[in-house]
Request: fold
Amino acid sequence: MSVDRLSRSLLDFARLMDRFDQRSVSFVSVTQHFNTTTSLGRLTLNILLSFAQFEREIISERTRDKMSAARRKGKWVGGTPVLGYDVDPQGGRLVVNQDEAKRVRETFELYRRHRSITAVVEQLACLGWKTKSWKSKRGLQHKGRFFTGASLSRMLTNAIYAGKVEYRGAIYDGEHPAIVDPALWEMIRAEARKGEGPKRDPVRCAQKALLAGLLFCTSCERAMRATYSSKQGVRYRYYICRAAQQNGWRSCPTKSVRAKLVEDSVIDQLRARLSAEPTHVFGIPDSIWQAFQQGDCKGLLDALVEKIRYDGSSGTVSVKLRRLKGSAAEVETLTFEYTIPTRRGSALPPFRPGPVPEPVGRPPRVAQLVALAHKLEAQVRSGKVNDYMTLAELAHVSPARIAQIVILAHLAPDIQEYVLFLSGEHAGLISEHELREIAREPLWDRQRTLFQRLLHRRRL
Reply:
């Protein structure tokens, strides 16, 4: 092996030689007569590597020059194909895909009519049109995706559709035929540049987004990001669904919610529920609870709240809490729901927290067994009990019965959550024996399949 096959970078090879020296390894070339045990061999090695790096840089420069010359001549030099064109099987040029080209022309006409990226994205979603689907030379299939504002903007300003090639800010005539009228493309490109304005350093405004990272849209299962709008110097804060922001306002029934409305409602509901129970039941440290009482709610939300879901069509807010049980390993999930007013016209009624719901009866037996399984496992893991045999003696049951209960803790987390919150009438349709059979399956995906079949048979 020649030395330049190992590396063509002096820096990389110097690091390799340093590693060799640390481990008392000598580098000897079979095809080139030198070795690194002598000073002459090291000199020869450095000279050869210098020429190897020089050769690599010359090849790179020539390749870049060739590609630049090809672009200036309007040639296709490779990359991801765009909607409306296919790559010639023989390579080197683009050919028009007539079916896709028709969709491209209609998309440009939609923008000419609406003059709105968001409106066109919504129209394309209704039509079911997606970006380019193509297959690479290696046989990898790349499936198209629904258009977003960013992908549609790139498409409308791409010079390829006007039969041109853009390279380093300059426009050259391309060898491929145009799909859309060049005058229409120039008009859209001019509008896009006018909307961009001069580039400036982004100004970051700190937002008091209390529910950032916790609030999710129920309809889309997407996170809701904090944003704001300003009018006459007044800032109005909102949480907006990312799907509505990317795919258009009509794509999501939730859309947005006033930040103060949902934040105040969550705090009021938490204060009512935490006041009804001692704080140690939830495992809340005294320092966090005192800060919450004084108006600093961020620490308690981070420690207690796992997820908040908001449904804009009904105004339902679902809050999922984590409650510690004895130790950090024992975590119980609690969920409660309430409703906030939804917008009806211009007026928005004030929110008043409802009363804390009365406690329900005892949980179903299967739910109790799942909770007991975690409690038994925690006893062994914490070292309070040496093994399950000792645990069986303390509980006055057989070791076999302990094993039957503990295996329920091996269910997939979403299955456990489903069982824990089953109503009494539905819980009677699922037996402990069936859950144990599912829990014996080591793969969670397989468990979920078996559990879905069970629910289908029970019509749950």
Summary: The chain has four domains: 3-72, 85-196, 215-339, 365-458.
